[in-house]
Amino acid sequence: MLDVVETVDAQVRYINAEWRDKDESPRIGSKESRRANTSFQDVKVHDARPRLTAGEINLDQNGFSLTENRSTVTNFRDDAEVAAKYYDEMMSLIARTTNADRTFVYNHLVRTEKPVDFNDGYARFVHCDYNIRNLEDRSLELLEKHGVTPQPGWTYAWYNTWQPFDNPAHHNPLAVIDWESIPAEDIIDYYYTGRGGDSLVAAPVYSPDHRWCYFPDMTTEEVLIIKQLDGRPNRAFYCPHTSFDNKVVAEDLPPRRSIETRLMAVFENEA
Asked: Considering the domain boundaries, does residue 14 fall inside one?
């Protein structure tokens, strides 16, 4: 582990605040539409490791946490190997971490220093991956895909896992907003239009009260878990996030390469 600075100064793109008061929502799915609808804001990103060690961070309260996974995958660029091995690792991790009764993988995405297009490059503006208004429909659709019939009383939560491979995540680490610092009214709708889609998702507008966190120099055996949606009451149900340019690490360190999975957890008897 390298020497860590407890708080780093960074710039992150937020959706422009003007959209909060409009009846319509922005559409973002390219570099051009991102530039047109977002602006850089100066933020301070805090090292979350001390709080995690002190037991002050958990998924339901803060929307994110960190755990470990020693993967058996040898080539994260091989989709077949990832589906055969890594999916089971992540489903087991989420079940173990959240006490879910069932878990299902939705998809995965690999990000490296050489993206194919805008959609698989490092995340460059603050966003959530889904919209809480679509929780039920999205969950039922995934159950149907897996041939599972939903039962009365089931509730659903969606998570992302994010794990570096090849190298520790020195450059372009993922930063998150602590749910305790962001009121729900700071989050607005937008439409993600990448790769021909037009999906309703969500993103926050800027507030100086947002507390930004990250885990410096994440190793290839560490996994960041972030909450995406949750139908259970009194819990975090978003974790806005983005990568950022970490100016305090040496430029000659290797690039960040990471794999993320999107998963749904089913809680059969939890309200």
From this structure: yes
